[in-house]
Predict the structure.
Amino acid sequence: MEFEFRTDLRGTRIFYSDIDTWLLTKQGKVFHDTLEDWVAFRRTTKIAAEGWTKYRFADTQDLEQYVDYTLLMNPKFDQHPAIQKILAETKDRPGAFGAAMENLATPLVEELRRNQPKASATGGTHG
């Protein structure tokens, strides 16, 4: 019996290259202005894998939003009470987290960007 060690990510159910391409298209050079492409790709896949580990996200849209917010907005965005509510409401519903995050209220997005969540924030509507 011979083992096969893959290096091409075939057979994975998470499409890391789609997430990386989406992030680069959305953010451009803001995303990795000084990084080599492979370094940025590894960082993207690491964060996406974290999204799967913590929340079992397997849907590409869910992972795109998770990577976007973790990498470019606030690495602890998921600790905010409004985001915790979204996570609870969208659990086990592929694509629902991504859709909810795309529709976050502007004040909540700005609060997450400032990295200063309010303990009693409700975040308004999210979808």
